[in-house]
Fold:
Amino acid sequence: GAVVSQHPSRVICKSGTSVKIECRSLDFQATTMFWYRQFPKQSLMLMATSNEGSKATYEQGVEKDKFLINHASLTLSTLTVTSAHPEDSSFYICSATSQAMNTEAFFGQGTRLTVV
Amino acid sequence: GNSVTQMEGPVTLSEEAFLTINCTYTATGYPSLFWYVQYPGEGLQLLLKATKADDKGSNKGFEATYRKETTSFHLEKGSVQVSDSAVYFCALSGGSNYKLTFGKGTLLTVNP
Structure:
């Protein structure tokens, strides 16, 4: 299958700082990328859908000013957690897909964010 | 809206036991159905999928059949191994936006 690389895998940051997480499709062009948040022992919560070259579509209840998503190219999307607080600590996962991949979604390895 | 309900875990089995994880769904139209597996500390990997009624997805000894009449996509494996220990997610995708709706996940632990 296709490869999606997410970086970093783990990050610890101080309250009030911003953190950027990258999601790259390594061997295909991803027209659509998704960002999820996973709480301990819970399912994945879709945060936003990102289409290349356009603004991300955020799910209800997700603060777009806090979770900035950029999808500037067909192989890269970034999620920036701005002014992070301890309650933002979580596991963030991206996925990428395109019509060329028969709409199958390929997931990154996830990023464990800890805000101290 | 779309929803997925899957068997709550955790499920603990001995090696070589039979596995069933139940999954039912609610969706408009004709969704595609998926099972994903998540190993500790990792992202999700597609285990198998089915895109239309009566299709059977299979991979690594796991199987699931798309049952439209019962709106179900139960995951089965005849003989589990310790290496199958992971969290399993049932999911569906409907519409043109490729969005996935996930179940809550089922933690499977297989003991030697």
Summary: The radius of gyration of chain B is 13 Å. The mean pLDDT of chain B is 92. Chain B touches chain A at residues 32, 36, 41-46, 49, 89, 93, 97-100, 102-105, 107 (CB under 8 Å).
